[in-house]
Amino acid sequence: GPKQYRKIGGEAVLSRTLKVFLADDAIANIVLVIHRDDKTLLEQNCDLTDSRIQVVFGGETRQISTCLGLQALSQDNPDYVLIHDGVRPFISQDLLQRITDNLSSDCGLVPAVAVSDTLKAAPKDSIISHTVARDGLYSAQTPQAFPYEIILSAHNKAAAEKIQEFTDDSSIAEWFGLPVRIIEGSVDNTKITWAKDIEMANERLQNETSLFPDVRTGNGYDVHAFEPGDHVILCGVKIPFNKKLSGHSDADVGLHALTDALLATLGAGDIGTHFPPSDPQWKGADSRIFLEYAVKMVKKASGRISNVDITLICEEPKIGPNRPAMTTALSEMLDIAPHRVSIKGTTNEKLGFIGRGEGIATIVTATVIFPGEVPE
Length: 376
Description:
By secondary structure, this protein is an alpha+beta fold. About 30% of the residues lie in helices and about 25% in strands. The strands form seven sheets. A five-stranded mixed beta sheet has the order 15-12-18-16-17. Strand 3 (about 30-35), helix 2 and strand 4 form a beta-alpha-beta unit. Helix 5 (about 150-160) packs across helix 6 (about 170-175).
Protein backbone atom coordinates (compact mmCIF):
# COMPACT_ATOMS: atom_id res chain seq x y z
CA GLY A 1 0.00 0.00 0.00
CA PRO A 2 0.96 3.70 -0.03
CA LYS A 3 4.12 4.19 2.01
CA GLN A 4 2.63 6.91 4.21
CA TYR A 5 0.22 4.37 5.68
CA ARG A 6 2.77 1.61 6.17
CA LYS A 7 3.50 0.84 9.82
CA ILE A 8 6.81 1.58 11.54
CA GLY A 9 7.05 0.72 15.21
CA GLY A 10 3.41 -0.34 15.02
CA GLU A 11 2.14 3.07 13.83
CA ALA A 12 1.51 4.51 10.37
CA VAL A 13 4.30 6.69 8.99
CA LEU A 14 1.93 9.63 8.42
CA SER A 15 0.48 9.32 11.93
CA ARG A 16 3.95 9.69 13.44
CA THR A 17 4.64 12.71 11.23
CA LEU A 18 1.33 14.34 12.10
CA LYS A 19 1.85 13.97 15.85
CA VAL A 20 5.07 16.00 15.72
CA PHE A 21 3.28 19.00 14.23
CA LEU A 22 0.24 18.65 16.49
CA ALA A 23 2.56 18.86 19.50
CA ASP A 24 3.94 22.23 18.36
CA ASP A 25 1.99 25.23 19.73
CA ALA A 26 3.27 27.42 16.89
CA ILE A 27 1.27 25.39 14.35
CA ALA A 28 -2.17 26.97 13.90
CA ASN A 29 -3.58 24.81 11.09
CA ILE A 30 -2.59 21.59 9.34
CA VAL A 31 -3.67 20.67 5.82
CA LEU A 32 -3.26 17.00 4.90
CA VAL A 33 -3.20 16.65 1.12
CA ILE A 34 -4.06 13.06 0.20
CA HIS A 35 -5.03 10.96 -2.79
CA ARG A 36 -8.78 10.82 -3.23
CA ASP A 37 -8.71 7.00 -2.97
CA ASP A 38 -6.87 7.07 0.39
CA LYS A 39 -9.54 8.71 2.58
CA THR A 40 -10.43 5.45 4.32
CA LEU A 41 -6.75 4.58 4.83
CA LEU A 42 -6.20 7.99 6.38
CA GLU A 43 -9.13 7.64 8.77
CA GLN A 44 -8.03 4.13 9.79
CA ASN A 45 -4.44 5.13 10.51
CA CYS A 46 -4.47 8.71 11.79
CA ASP A 47 -6.27 10.51 14.61
CA LEU A 48 -8.06 13.40 12.89
CA THR A 49 -9.99 14.71 15.90
CA ASP A 50 -7.82 17.81 16.37
CA SER A 51 -9.74 20.83 15.06
CA ARG A 52 -6.61 22.19 13.40
CA ILE A 53 -6.58 19.37 10.83
CA GLN A 54 -8.11 19.86 7.38
CA VAL A 55 -8.08 17.15 4.70
CA VAL A 56 -7.76 18.11 1.02
CA PHE A 57 -7.64 15.89 -2.05
CA GLY A 58 -4.52 16.36 -4.15
CA GLY A 59 -3.81 16.33 -7.87
CA GLU A 60 -1.74 14.34 -10.34
CA THR A 61 1.64 15.64 -9.16
CA ARG A 62 3.24 16.75 -5.91
CA GLN A 63 3.40 20.30 -7.23
CA ILE A 64 -0.32 20.41 -8.02
CA SER A 65 -1.15 18.82 -4.66
CA THR A 66 0.93 21.38 -2.78
CA CYS A 67 -0.77 24.21 -4.65
CA LEU A 68 -4.19 22.83 -3.67
CA GLY A 69 -3.06 22.56 -0.05
CA LEU A 70 -1.88 26.17 -0.06
CA GLN A 71 -5.13 27.36 -1.60
CA ALA A 72 -7.05 25.57 1.16
CA LEU A 73 -5.38 27.90 3.67
CA SER A 74 -6.52 31.09 1.90
CA GLN A 75 -9.32 31.83 4.38
CA ASP A 76 -6.93 31.50 7.33
CA ASN A 77 -4.27 33.54 5.51
CA PRO A 78 -1.39 32.64 7.86
CA ASP A 79 1.80 34.66 8.01
CA TYR A 80 3.96 31.63 7.23
CA VAL A 81 3.52 28.12 5.96
CA LEU A 82 5.64 25.00 6.43
CA ILE A 83 5.48 22.44 3.62
CA HIS A 84 6.50 18.95 4.70
CA ASP A 85 6.72 15.48 3.19
CA GLY A 86 4.36 13.24 5.14
CA VAL A 87 6.87 10.40 4.79
CA ARG A 88 9.51 12.17 6.88
CA PRO A 89 8.32 10.88 10.29
CA PHE A 90 11.55 11.61 12.17
CA ILE A 91 11.25 15.38 12.05
CA SER A 92 12.20 16.59 15.54
CA GLN A 93 10.84 19.34 17.75
CA ASP A 94 14.35 20.84 17.78
CA LEU A 95 14.33 21.22 13.98
CA LEU A 96 10.81 22.66 14.02
CA GLN A 97 11.89 25.18 16.65
CA ARG A 98 14.97 26.09 14.60
CA ILE A 99 12.74 26.79 11.61
CA THR A 100 10.17 28.89 13.49
CA ASP A 101 12.97 30.86 15.19
CA ASN A 102 14.36 31.85 11.79
CA LEU A 103 11.17 32.71 9.88
CA SER A 104 11.49 35.83 7.75
CA SER A 105 9.02 37.82 5.69
CA ASP A 106 11.52 38.35 2.87
CA CYS A 107 12.96 34.87 2.31
CA GLY A 108 12.23 31.16 2.47
CA LEU A 109 13.94 28.57 4.66
CA VAL A 110 15.13 25.11 3.71
CA PRO A 111 16.65 22.69 6.25
CA ALA A 112 19.53 20.90 4.57
CA VAL A 113 22.61 18.82 5.31
CA ALA A 114 25.91 19.19 3.51
CA VAL A 115 26.63 16.52 0.91
CA SER A 116 29.27 14.15 2.25
CA ASP A 117 29.45 11.58 -0.55
CA THR A 118 31.63 11.99 -3.61
CA LEU A 119 29.39 12.92 -6.54
CA LYS A 120 29.87 11.54 -10.06
CA ALA A 121 28.27 12.74 -13.28
CA ALA A 122 27.42 9.99 -15.77
CA PRO A 123 25.26 11.52 -18.53
CA LYS A 124 24.93 8.32 -20.56
CA ASP A 125 25.93 4.67 -20.70
CA SER A 126 26.74 4.79 -16.96
CA ILE A 127 30.22 6.03 -17.85
CA ILE A 128 31.48 8.71 -15.48
CA SER A 129 32.19 11.95 -17.29
CA HIS A 130 33.56 13.85 -14.31
CA THR A 131 33.53 14.19 -10.53
CA VAL A 132 31.28 16.95 -9.20
CA ALA A 133 32.83 19.20 -6.57
CA ARG A 134 30.71 18.85 -3.45
CA ASP A 135 31.78 22.11 -1.82
CA GLY A 136 28.70 24.21 -1.21
CA LEU A 137 26.31 21.40 -2.13
CA TYR A 138 23.46 20.45 0.20
CA SER A 139 20.77 17.83 0.38
CA ALA A 140 17.43 19.62 0.87
CA GLN A 141 14.91 18.39 3.44
CA THR A 142 11.47 19.44 4.59
CA PRO A 143 9.63 21.18 6.15
CA GLN A 144 10.43 24.14 3.93
CA ALA A 145 9.09 27.43 5.28
CA PHE A 146 7.88 30.49 3.37
CA PRO A 147 5.84 33.65 3.76
CA TYR A 148 2.39 32.30 2.91
CA GLU A 149 1.16 34.86 0.40
CA ILE A 150 4.42 34.79 -1.59
CA ILE A 151 4.67 31.00 -1.94
CA LEU A 152 0.96 30.80 -2.80
CA SER A 153 1.48 33.39 -5.54
CA ALA A 154 4.51 31.48 -6.80
CA HIS A 155 2.55 28.22 -7.01
CA ASN A 156 -0.42 29.92 -8.67
CA LYS A 157 1.83 31.53 -11.28
CA ALA A 158 3.60 28.22 -12.01
CA ALA A 159 0.20 26.54 -12.40
CA ALA A 160 -1.07 29.30 -14.71
CA GLU A 161 2.03 29.02 -16.89
CA LYS A 162 1.80 25.21 -16.81
CA ILE A 163 5.37 24.84 -15.51
CA GLN A 164 5.58 21.52 -13.66
CA GLU A 165 9.23 20.51 -13.54
CA PHE A 166 9.94 21.85 -10.04
CA THR A 167 11.12 19.11 -7.67
CA ASP A 168 10.48 20.99 -4.43
CA ASP A 169 8.91 24.20 -3.21
CA SER A 170 12.16 26.07 -2.73
CA SER A 171 12.84 25.73 -6.47
CA ILE A 172 9.46 27.37 -7.19
CA ALA A 173 10.33 30.14 -4.74
CA GLU A 174 13.71 30.67 -6.44
CA TRP A 175 12.02 30.83 -9.86
CA PHE A 176 9.51 33.36 -8.52
CA GLY A 177 12.32 35.54 -7.19
CA LEU A 178 12.05 34.83 -3.45
CA PRO A 179 15.45 34.33 -1.81
CA VAL A 180 15.76 31.01 0.01
CA ARG A 181 18.17 30.51 2.88
CA ILE A 182 19.57 27.20 4.10
CA ILE A 183 19.48 26.38 7.79
CA GLU A 184 20.95 23.34 9.51
CA GLY A 185 18.85 20.24 8.91
CA SER A 186 19.14 16.86 10.61
CA VAL A 187 20.64 13.60 9.41
CA ASP A 188 17.83 11.86 11.32
CA ASN A 189 15.15 13.64 9.25
CA THR A 190 15.11 10.85 6.69
CA LYS A 191 12.49 10.22 4.02
CA ILE A 192 10.72 6.87 3.65
CA THR A 193 11.10 6.00 -0.03
CA TRP A 194 11.90 2.32 -0.45
CA ALA A 195 10.80 -0.88 1.27
CA LYS A 196 14.26 -1.03 2.82
CA ASP A 197 13.57 2.33 4.48
CA ILE A 198 10.60 0.78 6.30
CA GLU A 199 12.85 -1.97 7.66
CA MET A 200 15.50 0.53 8.76
CA ALA A 201 12.87 2.73 10.44
CA ASN A 202 11.54 -0.25 12.39
CA GLU A 203 15.05 -1.16 13.50
CA ARG A 204 15.73 2.41 14.52
CA LEU A 205 12.56 2.67 16.62
CA GLN A 206 13.22 -0.68 18.22
CA ASN A 207 16.80 0.28 19.10
CA GLU A 208 15.63 3.58 20.64
CA THR A 209 13.61 1.78 23.28
CA SER A 210 15.14 -1.67 23.71
CA LEU A 211 18.38 -1.09 25.63
CA PHE A 212 17.96 1.56 28.31
CA PRO A 213 14.54 3.15 27.82
CA ASP A 214 14.09 6.59 29.34
CA VAL A 215 11.50 5.76 32.00
CA ARG A 216 10.84 8.63 34.42
CA THR A 217 8.78 8.72 37.59
CA GLY A 218 7.23 11.85 39.04
CA ASN A 219 5.59 12.38 42.43
CA GLY A 220 2.92 14.90 43.36
CA TYR A 221 1.39 15.92 46.69
CA ASP A 222 -1.39 18.37 47.40
CA VAL A 223 -3.74 19.21 50.26
CA HIS A 224 -6.83 21.40 50.55
CA ALA A 225 -8.95 22.33 53.56
CA PHE A 226 -12.72 22.08 53.70
CA GLU A 227 -15.04 25.07 53.83
CA PRO A 228 -18.86 25.36 53.76
CA GLY A 229 -20.37 24.04 50.54
CA ASP A 230 -22.47 21.35 48.94
CA HIS A 231 -19.96 19.33 46.86
CA VAL A 232 -16.32 18.49 46.27
CA ILE A 233 -14.53 17.91 42.96
CA LEU A 234 -12.09 15.02 42.99
CA CYS A 235 -10.21 13.75 39.93
CA GLY A 236 -12.58 15.64 37.68
CA VAL A 237 -15.77 14.26 39.27
CA LYS A 238 -18.35 16.39 41.16
CA ILE A 239 -19.36 14.56 44.34
CA PRO A 240 -22.31 15.79 46.47
CA PHE A 241 -21.07 16.52 50.00
CA ASN A 242 -21.83 18.81 52.92
CA LYS A 243 -18.58 20.75 52.42
CA LYS A 244 -16.34 21.88 49.57
CA LEU A 245 -12.59 22.22 49.19
CA SER A 246 -11.04 25.63 49.58
CA GLY A 247 -8.69 26.83 46.84
CA HIS A 248 -8.01 29.50 44.22
CA SER A 249 -9.24 27.23 41.40
CA ASP A 250 -11.88 24.51 41.82
CA ALA A 251 -9.49 22.95 44.41
CA ASP A 252 -9.45 19.50 42.78
CA VAL A 253 -6.73 18.09 45.01
CA GLY A 254 -6.42 14.96 42.85
CA LEU A 255 -5.81 16.77 39.57
CA HIS A 256 -3.42 19.23 41.23
CA ALA A 257 -1.18 16.47 42.57
CA LEU A 258 -1.36 14.58 39.26
CA THR A 259 -0.38 17.71 37.33
CA ASP A 260 2.66 18.12 39.58
CA ALA A 261 3.62 14.48 39.07
CA LEU A 262 3.56 14.78 35.28
CA LEU A 263 5.49 18.07 35.32
CA ALA A 264 8.07 16.35 37.52
CA THR A 265 8.85 13.82 34.77
CA LEU A 266 9.90 16.79 32.61
CA GLY A 267 11.75 18.65 35.35
CA ALA A 268 9.30 21.49 34.61
CA GLY A 269 8.54 22.79 38.09
CA ASP A 270 5.11 22.52 39.68
CA ILE A 271 1.58 23.69 39.01
CA GLY A 272 2.24 27.05 40.65
CA THR A 273 5.10 27.72 38.23
CA HIS A 274 2.75 27.57 35.24
CA PHE A 275 -0.52 28.70 36.87
CA PRO A 276 0.35 31.11 39.71
CA PRO A 277 -2.44 31.34 42.33
CA SER A 278 -1.79 35.10 42.40
CA ASP A 279 -3.11 35.33 38.83
CA PRO A 280 -6.85 36.21 38.95
CA GLN A 281 -7.58 34.41 35.67
CA TRP A 282 -7.28 31.04 37.48
CA LYS A 283 -9.80 31.93 40.19
CA GLY A 284 -12.43 29.18 40.14
CA ALA A 285 -10.80 27.56 37.09
CA ASP A 286 -11.52 23.95 36.14
CA SER A 287 -8.42 21.99 37.16
CA ARG A 288 -8.79 19.92 33.99
CA ILE A 289 -7.09 22.91 32.27
CA PHE A 290 -3.96 22.38 34.39
CA LEU A 291 -3.81 18.63 33.84
CA GLU A 292 -4.38 18.81 30.09
CA TYR A 293 -1.62 21.43 29.87
CA ALA A 294 0.80 19.02 31.58
CA VAL A 295 -0.32 16.14 29.32
CA LYS A 296 0.32 18.32 26.28
CA MET A 297 3.83 19.12 27.54
CA VAL A 298 4.54 15.40 27.95
CA LYS A 299 3.29 14.66 24.44
CA LYS A 300 5.30 17.54 22.99
CA ALA A 301 8.40 15.83 24.41
CA SER A 302 7.18 12.58 22.75
CA GLY A 303 6.51 11.03 26.15
CA ARG A 304 3.98 8.28 26.74
CA ILE A 305 2.15 8.08 30.05
CA SER A 306 2.49 4.49 31.23
CA ASN A 307 0.40 4.66 34.39
CA VAL A 308 -0.68 6.91 37.24
CA ASP A 309 -1.27 5.86 40.86
CA ILE A 310 -3.43 8.18 42.97
CA THR A 311 -4.08 7.89 46.71
CA LEU A 312 -6.80 10.14 48.11
CA ILE A 313 -6.51 10.53 51.89
CA CYS A 314 -9.69 11.58 53.69
CA GLU A 315 -12.29 10.44 56.18
CA GLU A 316 -15.11 11.60 53.91
CA PRO A 317 -16.49 11.50 51.23
CA LYS A 318 -16.24 7.83 50.35
CA ILE A 319 -13.92 7.22 47.40
CA GLY A 320 -14.98 3.68 46.45
CA PRO A 321 -18.42 4.47 45.01
CA ASN A 322 -16.94 7.29 42.88
CA ARG A 323 -13.85 5.40 41.68
CA PRO A 324 -15.33 4.23 38.32
CA ALA A 325 -16.36 7.77 37.33
CA MET A 326 -12.95 9.13 38.37
CA THR A 327 -11.15 6.44 36.39
CA THR A 328 -13.19 7.21 33.29
CA ALA A 329 -12.55 10.94 33.60
CA LEU A 330 -8.80 10.51 34.07
CA SER A 331 -8.55 7.97 31.26
CA GLU A 332 -10.05 10.59 28.95
CA MET A 333 -7.89 13.48 30.19
CA LEU A 334 -4.65 11.47 30.09
CA ASP A 335 -5.52 9.68 26.83
CA ILE A 336 -4.59 6.29 28.31
CA ALA A 337 -6.50 3.07 28.94
CA PRO A 338 -8.52 2.84 32.18
CA HIS A 339 -6.41 -0.06 33.46
CA ARG A 340 -3.43 2.33 33.56
CA VAL A 341 -5.22 4.54 36.09
CA SER A 342 -5.09 3.45 39.74
CA ILE A 343 -7.20 5.32 42.27
CA LYS A 344 -7.22 4.39 45.95
CA GLY A 345 -8.92 5.89 48.94
CA THR A 346 -7.68 5.65 52.51
CA THR A 347 -8.40 7.33 55.83
CA ASN A 348 -5.97 8.87 58.31
CA GLU A 349 -7.34 6.71 61.13
CA LYS A 350 -8.89 9.79 62.79
CA LEU A 351 -5.44 11.32 63.27
CA GLY A 352 -4.39 14.88 62.46
CA PHE A 353 -6.31 17.47 60.45
CA ILE A 354 -7.43 14.82 57.95
CA GLY A 355 -8.63 12.57 60.75
CA ARG A 356 -10.61 15.47 62.17
CA GLY A 357 -12.35 15.91 58.80
CA GLU A 358 -10.74 19.26 58.08
CA GLY A 359 -9.46 18.50 54.56
CA ILE A 360 -8.19 16.07 51.93
CA ALA A 361 -4.64 15.20 50.88
CA THR A 362 -3.49 13.37 47.76
CA ILE A 363 -0.31 11.52 46.82
CA VAL A 364 0.32 10.70 43.15
CA THR A 365 2.99 8.76 41.31
CA ALA A 366 3.16 8.98 37.50
CA THR A 367 5.35 6.93 35.18
CA VAL A 368 6.19 8.32 31.72
CA ILE A 369 8.34 6.74 29.01
CA PHE A 370 10.28 9.11 26.77
CA PRO A 371 12.11 8.24 23.54
CA GLY A 372 15.83 7.58 23.62
CA GLU A 373 17.98 6.04 26.28
CA VAL A 374 19.05 6.94 29.77
CA PRO A 375 22.49 8.60 29.41
CA GLU A 376 25.52 6.90 30.92
